[in-house]
Write a structure and sequence with these properties.
mainly alpha; 24 helices; globular
């Protein structure tokens, strides 16, 4: 059976090997390819007190262990993207193995293997594994599940070290202490603490220390809010957040309509109560109710349901607005609930002497999921392919058209660029980044009249954004308001020091 588990983990790795031919896509470029801290172990260690997003980006966040893992890979491979993709596949294989080891406590071997297979090949993993910045989600899964297993073996120091590793890989790693406590409770069969209180005290200290460090180093990320939530009330935010959770559940159960973007109108910018929001509310209540109902009947489901809820909570936008409406990479750990459900179903069929039915169902599901994964993988080959796929599959995505506009602008195709900018604005007019980019393009063409309302709208929402500041500065120059231009140049130089030279050159 040990060999069977290793084989499942190996299959998880092999499925994603086609990605070793891919390059740096989207955020991979800023976080890895153009980030000196990700190019050597020494630089990564020196950057342990630096935010995840390197300057001049203002995304903040704090994921030093993820950056260190890139630095190790870069040093070993000389910066070859294929090697980093290979290591992502290996991390996914390791996570799959740990999923099976964790579920062994509650499921028979047939159920464990079925759960492992479903977790290994689920198509929603494509973004996390094929996109290199998804490494953070892979590392959290490995460290969190490893911490649970270490605690079960009473290896308290190792469990604390792995808990710290989960937190230093990505922010939602802070839930590891709660996950260990949950596992402890489910094992004891009652709401009592079985592990030493000193161990839980150490986990609490680690969590509080991480929160303090995260706020000090990467707290700027808390201000990186997805455009639909800018200026929205709590009710307005929830009107979008609950439909997004419903969409996430659909992707976990029926992963056909995958997308690299879930901003408007892939998920509509709802402004009030909708059927999708009601479904999302029911989903949240249902998952929590399921976890409570299964705590004794099926601890594997209870564990997986709570882990899924905890993993997605920081980016769910239910508590605070996050930088994304929904991203498939954030569903990496929540797939555990689907996998545990599949494992329980197979175990139930096997216990009723329906072995052939169980085997056929597993084969059918795994083959279907694997085929969808292999079909989806090529979308992440490079930026061009990803954008074209997004435009073809989701022409309602305003972000897709905004990106296409930037590409056409770089190619010098003004008519196509303006068409795409106009299309993006017609789909969603609530993004100050889009307003500023469109205005900057118009100013470059001397169309100050068309740019003016866009600059005004962007300024009202995000006055100190670097692109918005450029637009305001250029507008002041056009109107020969040198006093305002110099003031804006001083502000921009203070907020974005690397752009001081550009502003000085424009004032000469």
């Amino acid at each position: 059976m040990r060999a069977a588990r290793v084989a499942v983990a190996a299959a998880a790795t092999l499925l994603f090997l086609p990605a070793t031919r891919y390059g740096f896509v989207q955020d991979d470029r800023a976080i890895i390819a153009a980030n000196p801290a990700a190019h050597s172990v020494t630089a990564a260690l020196r950057a342990f007190d630096q935010p995840y997003w390197p300057p001049p980006a203002e995304g903040g966040l704090y994921r030093p262990l993820t950056i260190l893992s890139y630095a190790v890979d870069w040093s070993l491979s000389g910066g070859r993207a294929g090697w980093l993709h290979l290591m992502n596949a290996v991390w996914h294989g390791l996570a799959t193995l740990l999923v099976m080891l964790v579920l062994t406590r509650w499921l028979p071997e047939s159920g464990v293997l079925a759960a492992g297979l479903v977790f290994a090949v689920h198509p929603v993993h494509v973004e996390a594994v094929a996109g290199l910045v998804g490494r953070a989600d892979l590392l959290v899964a490995v460290a969190l599940l490893g911490a649970v297993l270490a605690a079960r073996s009473h290896r308290w120091t190792a469990a604390c070290a792995l808990a710290a590793a989960a937190m230093l890989s990505k922010e939602h790693g802070v839930v590891v202490g709660v996950v260990i406590l949950l596992d402890d409770w489910l094992q004891s069969g009652s709401l009592r603490v079985g592990y030493p209180r000193g161990f839980y005290a150490a986990l609490a200290v680690l969590t509080l220390a991480f929160f303090g460090l995260w706020w000090h180093v990467g707290g700027a990320g808390v201000h990186d809010v997805a455009p639909p939530f800018l200026g929205a009330s709590a009710g307005g935010r929830l009107a979008i957040a609950f439909p997004a959770l419903w969409r996430a559940a659909r992707l976990l159960v029926w992963p056909l309509d995958l997308s690299a973007d879930y901003n408007p109108q892939v998920i509509p910018a709802y402004t009030g109560v909708s059927l999708a929001a009601i479904a999302g509310i029911a989903l949240v209540a249902g998952v929590l109710g399921l976890a409570w109902w299964c705590r004794r009947r099926s601890p594997a489901i209870a564990f997986a349901a709570v882990v899924a809820a905890l993993a997605i909570a920081p980016t769910s936008n239910l508590i605070l607005p996050a930088g994304v409406v929904l991203a498939e990479r954030t569903l990496y750990l929540p797939v555990l609930l689907v996998a545990a459900g599949a494992g329980l179903g197979v175990a139930t069929l096997m216990s009723r002497a329906r072995t052939l039915v169980a085997v056929l169902l597993v084969a059918l599901v795994v083959c279907a999921l694997s085929a969808r994964t292999l079909e989806r993988l090529p979308a992440w080959r490079d930026n061009r392919t990803l954008l074209l796929t997004l435009l073809e599959e989701h022409p309602e995505s305003y972000r897709a058209h905004a990106s296409a506009a930037a590409v056409y602008a770089g190619l010098g195709d003004a008519p196509s660029s303006q068409r795409e900018y106009a299309t993006a604005e017609s789909l969603f007019a609530g993004d100050p980044h889009l307003d500023a980019s469109y205005a900057l393009w118009l100013l470059g063409r001397g169309d100050t009249a068309a740019a003016a309302p866009l600059v005004t709208r962007a300024q009202a929402r995000m006055a100190h954004d670097r692109v918005v500041l450029r637009c305001r500065f250029l507008t002041a120059l056009v109107h020969r308001d040198l006093v305002a231009a110099r003031a804006l140049a001083d502000t921009a130089g203070r907020l974005v020091p690397v752009e001081q030279l550009w502003y000085r050159q424009q004032l000469q």
